[in-house]
Amino acid sequence: MTTALSLRSLANIARLGVKELWSLARDPIMLVLIVYTFTVSIYVAATAMPDSLHHAAIAIVDEDGSPLSARIAASFYPPYFKTPDMISLNQMDVGMDNGNYTFVLDIPPDFQRDVLAGRSPTAQLNVDATRMSQAFTGNAYILDIINAEVTEFLQRYRGAAPLPVELVLHTRFNPNLERAWFGALMEIINNVTMLSIILTGAALIREREHGTIEHLLVMPVTPMEIMLAKIWSMGLVVLIAAAAALLFIVQGALQVPIEGSIGLFLLVAALHLFATTSMGIFLATLARSMPQFGMLLVLVLLPLQLLSGGSTPRESMPVLVQDLMLAAPTTHFVSAAQGILYRGAGITVVWPQMLTILVIGALLFFASLTRFRKTISQMA
Fold first, then answer.
1. C-alpha 69: how far from its chain's center?
2. How far is the C-alpha of 240 from the C-alpha of 242, rounded, in Å?
3. What is the tens place of the pLDDT at every residue in 187-232?
């Protein structure tokens, strides 16, 4: 008899989950949100990083015409800068006024002669400060490039002694320091959390607003079966969308290499979805309408995404914040996902995070189930 009850319970969970999928399929707003979140949102996050210097427009006014000035001009190249336009002094102001250039470097006459004579000549860098992100980052890049070229040029003539220590830089996991690699993958990680909470919470509130929750109360189903149905159906939608985004957007459109196993990442994501979908149901039981649910999302999602280590390393945060965020499933999900996708970590490395996510998910599930039963009893 116990087996029959278990099979009937599983059948109820499966049928209720299919009902949730059909309900989602008839909601065009949610479908657009899912497609946008795992396509356009990821592409924009990868290619429009506001603090990056990428193909900045630069022009050079070479009034010196010396080997040193030619060497400086040749040191600006993609991907940080576009190939420099060599313009005259009269074209400089016009080009800046028309917005053709973010930077214009004016190398004065006798620049090389003054450098060799040790007179510390001045080169003028004109910056279009309306392009704040590139202006702030680019002027430091240009200063370093010029100083490096001048130093190497002087060493060739004066034979300066080598430094006593040579630092050899070895960049692992992202050799070219491509910001798109970080932006694309972190957007998927963040969107898995955001969309799973939204879908499950909206599904419960939608049933309450449409009155279908009362229909479920008169059916031979339990609150746990209703919750599990929403968790597996909405979690499956997010999991499929995340897998498609990894394959077609990250690896396909953006050409970002994935170091680790996508299957292992999806397994960790499934455990994380168990926690976040339960959290979405809990928030939906607290809210009486979709606007209230949206306000609760703002209060919950911002800390989860900003303090979980995805945007800023946890080591840079106050110790109190680090300790508090250990109770959030996103902290452990971000750590495990970054280890798998960036560094190719296996299950022997990420199993502690997986276990922690499972424990937190179980606690959230039972807290949500208790709250859900209380809500249903009040409605009955």
1. 40
2. 5
3. 898 999 999 999 999 888 887 777 666 666 667 778 888 889 999 9
